[in-house]
Write a structure and sequence with these properties.
The protein is of the alpha+beta class. It has helices spanning 24-38, 48-54; strands spanning 11-13, 42-44. Strands 1-2 form a two-stranded parallel ribbon. The longest helix is centred in the middle third of the chain and has 15 residues, at 24-38.
Length: 56
């Protein structure tokens, strides 16, 4: 994220944001903030970890 320039670049988050480490909630909250602020510049894809949570 520190190399991402929001003025000239898009950001793709490729899933698996949860289920690893102790900060899954903070990770999701941060991504939600980025998505709200930068809207069309941020694309968030669901990974298999999110998929498992939704269908467990």
């Amino acid at each position: 994220m520190k190399h991402w320039n929001s003025e000239t670049m898009n950001l793709a988050i490729l899933g698996d944001m949860i289920d690893r480490g102790e900060n899954s909630l903070k990770v999701v909250q941060k991504i939600m903030q980025f998505k709200k602020k930068y809207q069309d510049q941020v694309c968030v894809l669901k990974g298999n970890h999110e998929d498992m949570l939704l269908y467990s």
